[in-house]
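User: Hi! I'm working on a homework problem where we have to compare a predicted structure to a textbook description. Could you give me the structure for the chain below?
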Amino acid sequence: MYYIIETENFDFWDTQNIVLWAVLAVMIVSFLTQLYYYLFIFRKVGVRQRKTPTEHTGEPVSVIICIKDEGLNLSKILPLVLEQNYPEYEVIVVNDNSSDDSEEVLKLAQNRYPHLQIRNLVANNSVHGKSVVLGVGIKAAKYNRIVITDVTCRPSAEWLKSVSTGFDSEVVMCYTRYCVAGRFVRVANYYESLFRLGYALNRRPYTASGENESFRKELFFEKGFNPLLRKPEKVEQVFFNSVMNRKNTAVVLLPEAIVDSEKILSFGDWRLECSGELFTKRLFRRGTRHAKLPEIISRTLFYMSFVAAIIMAVNVMWLWISITGVFLLRLITQILIFISTQKALGEKKLALHTILWDFYSVFAYLYIALLIRHRKTIKYQ
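Assistant: Happy to help. Predicted structure tokens:
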């Protein structure tokens, strides 16, 4: 069907233009929804924080790391965690039946660092899930303040000091920067973090990554881990969703609080990670299961309606220019927000890939959703 609209005698209420106005209405509504996310949620991630590591509380901390066959990463990362510039803390490493040299690396480290605790789990007829492994570490902690991180995360010497600036809240969220993964995987992690951190800064927290967070030990004993958890679900994300609320969650984005993850992820690995997160959301509390969905839907509708409107209004110059102007306004807003937030999070050389991901991710998430719908095609490891 071709829409021919005369430039000189453009009739606003001509029947042939009804579809065009419907498309424009969808475009405007989706555009305003997008502006809301960028200006009122994502933008806050780029606002400079005033606290500094010198304002730390000094509260004793138990750092928990869960490992399985991570001997190489342990030898590189563990000394950085054990040599923090912090007055009183312990590090608990829960070794889940590793078959490599992880146990030997831990024993050597324990001889040098007395504040290192080791918990070795041995599997019999069943394989331990992450809820069991992490639960062992939390129960072994002697301090009330828990900090969890991953064995692939490289912290600075002031990491614990910086994280502790948020200890006046029960839950503290920080950022994990992927430094060796592919560009699009790094962008996907950054984009996902904009939602988590942005919502939390708007006092509507819904979950955390579980790679660089802190919480009080009593929260675990109050809520525990969801008994419906299975292998595909992200244990930490479900736990944080159950304990977070608008009054007990703080976000710390000081440079020293950010850790660099050396986890190597391909797009296929990211697909599995993302599918696990989608499985996880069914266990979230109501009202938080679809926190990202309005943005994704509005973004999809914006692109679809923009293309349709450009085609249908091609013969009306002033309308065509107006439609293009709306697109450019959104693009400029995006670029400014991306620059400020990526600067705050220490992300570099991602600007172009972020713009591309904004469009490409619509298809990526649809692809993953279809795979989950036909779960037999996914082999989650």
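For your comparison, note the following. The beta strands are 61-67, 89-96, 116-121, 145-149, 153-154, 171-173, 176-178, 212-216, 249-251, 259-261. Residues 1-8, 376-381 have pLDDT under 50 and may be disordered. Good luck with the assignment!
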